[in-house]
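Example 3.2
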Amino acid sequence: MFFGWLGGAIVGMLTGIGIGFNKTFAYWVQPLVRVLGPIPSTAWIPLVLIAFPTAVSASAFLIALAVWFPTTVLTSSGIASIPNSYFEVSSTLGAGSFYRIAKVGIPAAMPHMFLGLFNGTCSSFITLVTAEMLGAKYGIGWYINWQKEMMAYANVYAGLIIIAVTFFILITLLFKFRDRVLAWQKGVIKW
């Protein structure tokens, strides 16, 4: 879960930044994002199980795919919504292209990036549990499916509670990280 989520988040942010700041990159990559992104990552399970040698690597790829799409779309959307005056002011003050991207564009788009990460985290949990139910020999999704087949419904509910608590803790940590990173925008954005 962690490696898939981290890989999807990094690639999603880089793809979104590339689409937002580079017109040539956006021209070639944005149609791919529009075509492949809306396909649920769980729909790729048959192909991924054939392409990857283990269920763990296949699950990590599916989780990365689930995180990649919302992070990419919301990062590029955040960059597109930045007022042009921010870039004009930085250019007037002598900022180069890299400075405008790193110090003006990315910080201004960070609230949208975090929304993409939150949405991607939700999708990653769904993908994780589904992938474990289909191909893994361990994990909470496998456990829930196994207990369902054994008709031990109390254990199924216990597994669902574990998923809910784990997801709550992960999202809470992500919110705290967002609040720390975006502390400079506390009075500007309501959350």
